[in-house]
């Protein structure tokens, strides 16, 4: 965490200076705050959805590799959940970058660097999503031969584990920056 750019791949948390509002608005109190309903609940539900989809794809891949899930069922789920995951995550990041963050960044100047870091995360995640798509497509391209699917599915599982770790780091940091800002200042017409 000594790197001044705080890249997603090596970051273990945001610096304490960017988590200053988290002391006043700790995670355990969020749902009890009157400002939590509406936008914040919806936004955090989207984050939960991304986590659930990744976990489902991971569980399906493990079951397939353990011969507890048919290739037909596995590839159908992978195509469905993988496509939804990529499309929804891109849309989510676009809304954050184009609408939410530009308005939230001005509410507390102490935290502007945090929003810059989150924006860089989105670009880093795009690269990992490209690798995700390549690995998922390698599995799907072999759907007619279960034996040929094993190696690509194993590579996909490893890549998915890495993506899960990075996405979770990003989501935690984003939540710990954004939620306290909105709870303190309100949501400025987003």
What key attributes describe this structure?
elongated; 5 helices; 72% helix; 190 residues; Four Helix Bundle (Hemerythrin (Met), subunit A); mainly alpha; single chain
Give me a quick take on this structure.
By secondary structure, the chain is mainly alpha-helical. The protein has five helices and no strands.
What can you tell me about this protein's structure?
With 190 residues, this protein is mostly helical. It has a single domain, classed as Four Helix Bundle (Hemerythrin (Met), subunit A), CATH 1.20.120. It is 72% helix and 0% strand. It has helices at residues 20-24, 39-65, 71-104, 112-141, 146-185. Helix 2 (39-65) packs antiparallel against helix 3 (71-104) and helix 2 (39-65) packs antiparallel against helix 5 (146-185).
Q: Could you outline the blueprint of secondary structure elements for this entry?
A:
Layout (H helix, E strand, L loop, with lengths): L19 H5 L14 H27 L5 H34 L7 H30 L4 H40 L5
Helix pairs in contact: 2-3, 2-5, 3-4, 4-5
């Amino acid at each position: 965490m000594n790197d001044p750019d705080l890249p997603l791949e090596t970051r273990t948390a945001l610096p304490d200076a960017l988590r200053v509002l988290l002391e006043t608005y700790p995670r355990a109190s969020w749902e009890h705050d009157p400002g939590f309903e509406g936008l914040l609940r919806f936004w955090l539900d989207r984050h939960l959805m991304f986590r659930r989809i990744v976990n489902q794809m991971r569980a399906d891949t493990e079951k397939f590799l353990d011969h507890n899930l048919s290739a037909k069922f596995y590839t159908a789920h992978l195509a469905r959940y993988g496509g939804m995951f990529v499309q929804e995550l891109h849309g989510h990041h676009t809304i954050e970058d184009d609408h939410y963050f530009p308005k939230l960044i001005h509410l507390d100047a102490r935290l502007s660097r945090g929003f810059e870091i989150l924006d860089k995360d989105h670009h880093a995640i795009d690269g990992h999503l490209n690798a995700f798509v390549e690995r998922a497509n390698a599995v799907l391209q072999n759907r007619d031969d279960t034996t040929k699917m094993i190696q690509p599915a194993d590579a996909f599982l490893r890549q998915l584990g890495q993506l899960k770790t990075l996405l979770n780091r990003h989501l935690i940091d984003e939540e710990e920056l954004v939620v306290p800002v909105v709870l303190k200042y309100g949501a400025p017409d987003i």
